Every structure is written in structure tokens, then in C-alpha cells.
């Protein structure tokens, strides 16, 4: 799949800095919030889909029997393995796999989680269907992702700026679209918890290695908005001379409805 090549190329570049301290990605506070919502149990075997460098896997591992952490980018998995060793965690199994074709039998996990990956999928119904298929009936599939603004006039500009920064970004869904996609994949959505996350613009574009011309182009749009220009959906603001903006992150909890229907429907 051509998009997976784009994913591997972009995340091979990002792997080195993805685990850096001080990023929203590695924030202990945000991870504690997310893990606190997940209905984990000590005997659970949990699948983390598109684990990246394993931030969420490492936060979950102390609470469960095993985490199986998959990703399509080998460089991200290499970093994840290093980090797990450094954290002294020996119950995370890392495997290279495509979320669109998970190499596991039906109903083989007690919980399936995925963080910040849906907005990299071209047809998220496909990967959601796979997550539902491998989850045991009546168990949880938890989707953590950034949300598009609900205002239709900003969905296009918000995702356009995200794609300018990182070409592997496809589409951040609105809350309504995410809930619909989960429901269409055979999940009964139990809750959607949201948080506003402050992002430092320079660190954001540095992490993806966005070229300098493009950084300036995105920055110009955010600065124009600050001066009263067109709303981009990024909600930029200045803090002590630093350009920042807000993302909405959500933790959406779905329960696999039944063994028969789950995984059959697609977005
Ligand atoms: C933004 S990172 C998020 C990583 C991690 N879940 C986290 O929250 O820190 C997105 C990850 O999704 C992975 N990815 C994208 N498409 C994938 C696919 N089809 N199958 C498996 N992994 C995929 C990328 O390789 C990358 O590591």
C-alpha cells in the first residue's frame, strides 16, 4: 500500500525524537489521564495498535499481564524496544504489523487500544474493523486521537495545515465522525473524554522535520489568524513570546458488541 510507504518514510525520520521528554506525546500527566480511563485488569493481554515508540504501551504495561505492541515502521519499534528495556518492563511484546491486516486470530485480546493513529489512516474503518475483530466480545476498544474542529468551515483548513506539516496525516475526524466510525465497526461507544492540549509550534514542526519554507507558510497562516484573519481551526495564541496552539485529544471507549457483527462493517 503506497500510503504505508509514506508512513514508514515519515516516521523513520521522526523515530529519533519521538520519545523526547517535554513533548505532549511523552507527558506523564496526559498518559495518566488516558490510562485512568481504560478499564484495565491485571490478567489482561492488551493490543496497542500503531504503538510508535511505545509511550502508551509502557504506561499500560505495569497494570496488565502483557501488552502486544504493533507498528508498521521498524525504526519506531526499535526505539520502543530500547525504551522498554530502559524502563525495566519485560511484559511488552513488539511486533511489526499493519493495522489494516492484524496477524492475530479473532477475539484474541482482552483490550485493544490505539493512540494518535486514526488520523494517519486513509480508510479508518478498515483498521477499526481489524481492532474490533481481534478484541473479545464485550471487551473494550479504546481510540485516543486528535479531533478536528466540529465547525465544518474549519475542518478543511485544520487538516490542510496538519498535512502541510506531515504528509502522512490523512484526516483528523470530528468527534461525531469518530463515534460514527466506531459504531459502524461494531462498537457500542460508552464514553468520549476530551482534553485541550497546548502545543508549542516550533517543537511541533521540528519533530516532523518539516522543511523551513513550509514551516514559514504554516506560521504565516497562524499569525494572520492572531491578527484577526481567517480562522484555521488551530486556535493559535502567544505565550511569553512563543507561538502555541490547541489540539483537542479524546479517549473514546467502545465495547465490542457481539461476536457475529463485529468487524463486518466498514466506514
Ligand atoms: C503519531 S504516531 C503515534 C504513536 C503512538 N501510538 C503514540 O501515541 O505515541 C503514529 C504511528 O502510527 C504508525 N502507523 C501508521 N499507520 C500504520 C498502520 N497501517 N499499521 C501500523 N502502524 C501504523 C506509524 O508508524 C507511527 O508509529
What does it look like?
- With 267 residues, the protein is α/β, with parallel strands linked by helices.
- It has a domain at 2-147 and 168-197 and 249-256: Vaccinia Virus protein VP39 (Rossmann fold).
- It has 9 helices and 8 strands.
- Strands 1, 2, 3, 4, 5, 6, 7 and 8 form an 8-stranded mixed β-sheet that branches.
- The chain is globular and about 55 Å long.
- The model is unreliable at 262-267 (pLDDT under 50).
- The chain binds S-adenosylmethionine (SAM).
Helix-strand layout with pairing:
Layout: H1 2-18, H2 28-37, E1 45-49, H3 55-60, E2 66-71, H4 74-86, E3 92-96, E4 109-115, H5 124-134, E5 135-147, H6 152-165, H7 175-184, E6 187-200, H8 201-207, H9 212-226, E7 236-239, E8 242-256
Parallel strand pairs: 1-2, 1-4, 2-3, 4-5
Antiparallel strand pairs: 5-8, 6-8, 7-8
The protein binds S-adenosylmethionine.
Strand percentage, roughly? 25-35%
**What is the CATH topology descriptor of the domain at 2-147 and 168-197 and 249-256?**
Rossmann fold
Largest sheet, in brief, is: 8 strands, mixed
Ligands: S-adenosylmethionine
Q: Which CATH class of the domain at 2-147 and 168-197 and 249-256 is shown?
A: Alpha Beta
Regions with little confidence, pLDDT below 50 for 5+ residues: 262-267
Oligomer: single chain
According to DSSP, the number of beta strands is: 8
**Helix and strand pattern:** HHEHEHEEHEHHEHHEE
**By CATH's scheme, which homologous superfamily of the domain at 2-147 and 168-197 and 249-256 applies?**
Vaccinia Virus protein VP39
What level of helicity do the residues show? 25-40%
Question: How many helices in DSSP terms?
Answer: 9
Shape descriptor: globular
Determine the N-to-C terminus distance: 18 Å
Amino acid at each position: 500500500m503506497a500510503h504505508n510507504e509514506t508512513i514508514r518514510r515519515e516516521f523513520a525520520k521522526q523515530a529519533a525524537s519521538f520519545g523526547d521528554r517535554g513533548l505532549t506525546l511523552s507527558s506523564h500527566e496526559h498518559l495518566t489521564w488516558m490510562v485512568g480511563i481504560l478499564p484495565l485488569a491485571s490478567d489482561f493481554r492488551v493490543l496497542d495498535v500503531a504503538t510508535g515508540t511505545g509511550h502508551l504501551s509502557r504506561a499500560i504495561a505495569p497494570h496488565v499481564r502483557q501488552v502486544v505492541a504493533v507498528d508498521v515502521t521498524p525504526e519506531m519499534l526499535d526505539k520502543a524496544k530500547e525504551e522498554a528495556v530502559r524502563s525495566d518492563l519485560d511484559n511488552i511484546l513488539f511486533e511489526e504489523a499493519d493495522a489494516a491486516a492484524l496477524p492475530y486470530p479473532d477475539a484474541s485480546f482482552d483490550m485493544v487500544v490505539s493512540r494518535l493513529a486514526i488520523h494517519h489512516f486513509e480508510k479508518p474503518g478498515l483498521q477499526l474493523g481489524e481492532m474490533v475483530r481481534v478484541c473479545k466480545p464485550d471487551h473494550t476498544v479504546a481510540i485516543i486521537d486528535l479531533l478536528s474542529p466540529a465547525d465544518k468551515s474549519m475542518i478543511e483548513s485544520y487538516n490542510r495545515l496538519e498535512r502541510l506539516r506531515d504528509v502522512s496525516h490523512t484526516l483528523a475526524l470530528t468527534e461525531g465522525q469518530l463515534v460514527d466510525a466506531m459504531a459502524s465497526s461494531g462498537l457500542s461507544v460508552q464514553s468520549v473524554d476530551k482534553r485541550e492540549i497546548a502545543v508549542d509550534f516550533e517543537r511541533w514542526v521540528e519533530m516532523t522535520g518539516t522543511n523551513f519554507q513550509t514551516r514559514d507558510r504554516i506560521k504565516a497562516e497562524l499569525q494572520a489568524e492572531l491578527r484577526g484573519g481567517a480562522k484555521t481551526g488551530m486556535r493559535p495564541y502567544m505565550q511569553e513570546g512563543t507561538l502555541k496552539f490547541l489540539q483537542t485529544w479524546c479517549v473514546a471507549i467502545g465495547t465490542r458488541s457481539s461476536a457475529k457483527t463485529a468487524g463486518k462493517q466498514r466506514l
